[in-house]
Amino acid sequence: MSPALALLLIMTVVPTVYLVRASLRNDTLLGIGGGFVGLQNYRDVLTDPNELHALLRTGFFVVVAVALELLLGMLLAVPLAAQSRSNNLAATLMLLPFAVTPVVSAMIFRELLSPTTGWVDYYIGRVGLGAHFDWLGGSNTAWLAIIGLDVWQWTPFVALILMAGLQSLPPEPSEAAAIDGASNWQTFRFITLPMLMPFVAIALTLRTIQAFKTFDSFAVLTNGGPGTSTEIINLNIYRVALQSFRIGAASALAMVFLIFLSLLVPLLLRVAGRDPEEGAA
């Protein structure tokens, strides 16, 4: 196990130690000044209203996007769980959206939403709903575009996890419920869904972590605009570190974000019915 442990140490522990050290200093990328400042960077981060607003916007995006993906993923997984050639083909096609890199997907969406050459604006004009609408120029519509992109790209991922879970469930409880006169909805609500909760927990946890890490689609589609209405925490870290060159402040912001996610994941697993302590036991 030594090679694997050494690789894990190099890839995770060493960068984390460097991040903690940098967060306690006021170093810059330019190498000017720098020194130990203790928890000053953390105090600045936790009292800066811009950073708190960025975290709230990030939370809003994650909650809305992941909720829609879980709902739509379940609606796709239930009919596709039955083994058939057409369902196997549909499951294969569902791999395409999240197989495309996020930057390419965001660039495609940006062109589709263009007010002058975009297909979306063109077909809206053809049905008489107006033309030359700047989707990315307004706060509400920019959020609609970003969330729509994320839902399009990651709903198939959730659907495949839930579909695999449905296919692994034993059929006997559902058959017994049908014999007792339960409707399809009652069987799903009281039999299938409780047994499916471990897979829901997996999908919820993976997608929540990935959604909190989203950077590409925001950077390409809106770059935090219009104004700062779509400025999320990852864009803030990027600007502080690589535009303002304040490595210490960016490291402190990243550490606060890391601690937040470390506390959130066990909570998600517990809410979804998979307590990590119970699983370990």
TrEMBL record:
Subcellular localization, as worded in the UniProt entry: Cell membrane
Protein known as: Sugar ABC transporter permease
CDD domains on file: TM_PBP2 (cd06261)
Pfam families: BPD_transp_1
Source organism phylogeny: Bacteria, Bacillati, Actinomycetota, Actinomycetes, Jatrophihabitantales
Membrane topology (UniProt): Multi-pass membrane protein
Alphabetized UniProt keyword annotations: Cell membrane, Membrane, Transmembrane, Transmembrane helix, Transport
Cited InterPro entries: MetI-like, MetI-like_sf
KW Transmembrane helix (keyword) present: yes
Family per record: Belongs to the binding-protein-dependent transport system permease family.
Domain ABC transmembrane type-1: from-to ranges: 55-268
TM region(s), chain numbering: 59-82, 89-109, 142-166, 187-206, 247-269
Main location: membrane
